[in-house]
């Protein structure tokens, strides 16, 4: 294990994050707020970053180093993000600050703050900005900006880009990262513009755009998007939440005028059908709660988009919906967005492949000697990929239940502990009952908050990098 | 440049590796997922799974916008069809690996009809490379520049050579007045560019560049001048051996080939009646001895197995053969092989890949100067390049002593019309010159790259 090179990489990413902290610092200065929390944070992060990046290191870098680097960088990132929160004085304990920061960078959007409107604008901006950085990925940004991060930089981005198979858009990783961030930036700017036109103040429009882009869910209003009570804003955010949950490779295909390939994506079709199906079902079942079909459709479509994209904005409190509707919400949390998007969850392509694999296994029981392959987008999916998929499902479910077990030590109900674990691992945000859209995570113990923070990172990196970090064999020399 | 490589085998991978180092956008197509995964894990490339003949697969790999397609699968026919399809889709330049000797004879027509811009035959290229080494037996490696006006050679210093322990500036005048320059040294795998105070040690591999007759003169002074090779002993009768036999036979060199397979022996004997063909195990030292190995001037190990080649080469070296050439495909252990004293190790995949890289560099639009050729020396630790000075080359007419070159870059030779100039402080560049540049670790793509990045001074011509 070439730990020195790994730490050197961590150092360089920290320097990048120190630079990123300058953005909320500027916001704080514009609104004439106390810049000290950000200045202190920048000083600390830059100092640590400089010290680490000055380490002399050999250039050996293999899969193992890649995974450890990703895991460590994300844990460090969670801590870095917490620094301004710690220094601003609005967070009761350091653990609260870390929880909030992890929730931000992993684009979960769960909060421990019962009341957010009184917070300084700089701090709220940083909260949303962490979503934007974490959405496309800190490492993707690093490979796009930092020259010659290392010969095998795709090990880094591979772990950070969600989905069962990682594929580049263009041959060079740095180029791929640049294209991804350019599209990301353009879409975010477009949303901010739309929201501004729909009547949101510029500051709020930026916050909600960052939040939507990363599929995070932090708002600067206590009632989230519901506070604006505007159909136009609801629709804009719904559309963009869905746009950010689609594989960015689809946009690249469209930009390169490969319409047919773009629209032929199995995952895209599956994702859109799930969204449409869930919206129709929720609209019908929620008719008892709302006065008209139109109103029911408005809230149902927004919540479906918010949950499946794992953003977690709220316009309606789904805890008040019928049990069946709530169960649908839980299923959507599991499913999550598309591979290669900024969303979390299991990812639609995995769910689709699991369903196809399941169909094949059932077919095999009735025809024991039949040979059948599983395809995605008309291409053969290797048995190795299917195998990894099953292991991933196992690891995912295990993580959720293990976390729920620890959270239940706090004495909360099954619905709360299970939905808290699931919402963290899937990076959604709200859970059921007390932690629903109008609730918060303040009541949990420090241990639970720590476990949840880790779960968010585990979920964001799709389980394995963090598991690798905690496996003894990773650290053995031989 | 956007380059698509079809086939992630030995040549494909080696080529991709070298092209990625030179910052090209490389996409590799292969139908074997495992081979693709390995390539994608190690190199910064894009991989596309599928058959390289299929237009859909090629389009997915972006052939329509690619400047170059290299078809290097293990089937000649696939490579040809692949090039044809790619050309139709819009690839600018296509290179196909065509190795079957039966196609090689009609490669001209094939190329015309299938719109293949270049056909490359790894075995033939290897044979050509080996024949060059046999033509200049004094040196372990030899490269030529400016149509043979300048040569670059590498040789290993042995205990007792007069160069040892003398700094280069203190060498006797008979060496100094020769038109040559010591341009690189490989000491235990560490490649550096020597200056005047460099002190050579036994075991160093020294590279020098200069006029061919000066180099010959130097070897004579060193007592290392080997007369022309007249008799060659070859083990292994594969494709490389056949091509090599053809070249050597034409040069009038007597050949003895040992090959295990009787069928193959008969084929060689049928094609080359003047060659002595022995059917037997070439790794059997007794057979080698009974066939009078020691009487030959040079020994070439060309069996299919790297290990066998290395062992019998060591044996031949120990038997006192002056020139031993070894075929070894694996590059990873090049350092060990060199430390054993085997200097002339040839890897077919490396030769092929280098040939293609050479073409790619030629295609590249260099702004100020045209790169005419590139050779990797010292096990890839340094590169020797020939440029033609163009009008966009900076600092023309400025004496070298006023210029600052990038560290690790040496301006080795200036060829002005028919004069060969070993640069001094007062030497300068002018338009139309050809220059030979040695760069440690590579990275020089344009003549302007040789100047230190912070160096802008120097001004106009004086």
What's the arrangement of strands in the largest beta sheet of chain A?
1-2
CATH architecture of the largest domain in chain B: 3-Layer(aba) Sandwich
Low-confidence parts of chain B: 458-462
Which two chains form the greatest contact, residue counts included? A-B, 15 and 12 residues
Helix content of chain A: 55-70%
What separation lies between the terminal Cα atoms of chain A?
9 Å
| Main pleated-sheet profile of chain A | 2 strands, antiparallel
- Report the order of strands and helices of chain A: HHHHHHHHHHHHHHHHHEEHHHHH
Q: What attributes does this structure have?
A:
heterodimer; A: 478 residues; mainly alpha; two-stranded antiparallel ribbon; B: Rossmann fold; Alpha-Beta Plaits; 6-stranded parallel sheet; globular
How are the elements arranged and paired?
The complex is a heterodimer of chains A (478) and B (462).
Chain A (H helix, E strand, L loop, with lengths): L2 H18 L1 H9 L5 H18 L9 H26 L5 H12 L15 H16 L1 H8 L8 H7 L12 H25 L4 H12 L17 H14 L3 H8 L3 H5 L2 H20 L7 H16 L14 H13 L12 H19 L8 E2 L2 E2 L2 H25 L6 H12 L20 H15 L3 H6 L2 H4 L3
Antiparallel strand pairs in A: 1-2
Chain B lengths: L1 E5 L3 H12 L3 E6 L2 H10 L3 E4 L5 H6 L7 E4 L4 H14 L3 E5 L3 H4 L2 H8 L3 E3 L1 H14 L5 E5 L4 E7 L16 H4 L3 E8 L2 E3 L12 E6 L1 H10 L9 E5 L3 H13 L2 E6 L2 H10 L4 E4 L5 H6 L7 E4 L4 H13 L4 E5 L6 H6 L4 E3 L1 H16 L6 E8 L4 E7 L20 E8 L2 E3 L12 E7 L22
Parallel strand pairs in B: 1-2, 1-4, 2-3, 4-5, 5-6, 12-13, 12-15, 13-14, 15-16, 16-17
Antiparallel strand pairs in B: 7-8, 8-11, 9-10, 9-11, 18-19, 19-22, 20-21, 20-22
Helix pairs in contact in B: 1-15, 7-10, 7-15
Provide structural commentary.
The complex is a heterodimer of chains A (478) and B (462). By secondary structure, chain A is mainly alpha-helical. Chain A has helices at residues 3-20, 22-30, 36-53, 63-88, 94-105, 121-136, 138-145, 154-160, 173-197, 202-213, 231-244, 248-255, 259-263, 266-285, 293-308, 323-335, 348-366, 383-407, 414-425, 446-460, 464-469, 472-475, and strands at 375-376, 379-380. A two-stranded antiparallel sheet of chain A has the order 1-2. In chain A, strand 1 and strand 2 (379-380) form a beta hairpin. The radius of gyration of chain B is 23 Å and the shape is globular. A six-stranded parallel β-sheet of chain B has the order 3-2-1-4-5-6, with helices on both faces. In chain B, strands 14-13-12-15-16-17 form a six-stranded parallel β-sheet, with helices on both faces. A five-stranded antiparallel β-sheet of chain B has the order 7-8-11-9-10. Chain B is α/β, with parallel strands linked by helices. The model of chain B is unreliable at 458-462 (pLDDT under 50). Chain B folds into three domains: 2-120, NAD(P)-binding Rossmann-like Domain (Rossmann fold), CATH 3.40.50.720; 231-350, NAD(P)-binding Rossmann-like Domain (Rossmann fold), CATH 3.40.50.720; 351-450, 2-Layer Sandwich (Alpha-Beta Plaits), CATH 3.30.70.
